[in-house]
Amino acid sequence: MLEIRNLHVKLEDQDKVILKGLDLTVESGSVHAIMGPNGSGKSTLSYVLSGRDGYEVTDGSAVLDGQELLDMEPEARAAAGLFLAFQYPVEIPGVGNMTFLRTAVNAQRKARGEEELSSTDFLKEIRAKAKALKIDAEMLKRPVNVGFSGGEKKRNEILQMAMLEPKMCILDETDSGLDVDAMRLVADGVNALRSPERSFIVITHYQRLLDHIKPDVVHIMADGRILQTGGPELALEVEKNGYADILKAHGIVAEEA
Fold first, then answer.
1. Dihedrals φ, ψ of 124, to 5°?
2. Are strands 67-68 and 55-64 parallel, antiparallel or unpaired?
3. On the CB side of 247, how many CA atoms lie within 13 Å of its CA?
4. Into how many domains does the chain fold?
């Protein structure tokens, strides 16, 4: 599904290297969790894959289903099946959720050479998916994320994901700022979208999210690269013991809080 090889990235406006030869393979239908201390490059990885400005790729590749993502514009990456759920979803005043989602869905369908959804077909589909995800229909009538709670913003992203039907979903600290109940609702939405054709990268600091979104593979990231890979038990080990031993084993000095 996704093959990242020897990825090196630095900030465009300063000579600071963030990713230092990162390798990662995500198989179809799998959920990979990425954990690591602050400043390890986790969010940078998500931004670079989605095509955010401000980063320069100096080496390496990122191939999604045979297509080199790094050669594509952000909208082309989205049409190819990449979806990024932000840590802090933005508000878009004056743009209704329904209008936003229909525009996004049809833009992607057009880019793939597919027929656009009519208003009737779109309405039928979004109502069905909102109901399946237990999302209040009233949310569909509001401007995008305006006045939404943290949990509502994240659930709205899950609805966007359901409508766009991406192949590769990246969740960048989607549990940030959520209470236990809101996190469980968001996790339930993610789990409802798991399928053999869809993969997830879940970036998180905490085991609490992985209690609800069960990963197949857990990676520990620091100093711009993957240091260790294992099963769900690796996240439990980190929750109990922290990162110090893993960092020390790779010659990395942990920063003091």
1. -65, -45
2. antiparallel
3. 19
4. 1
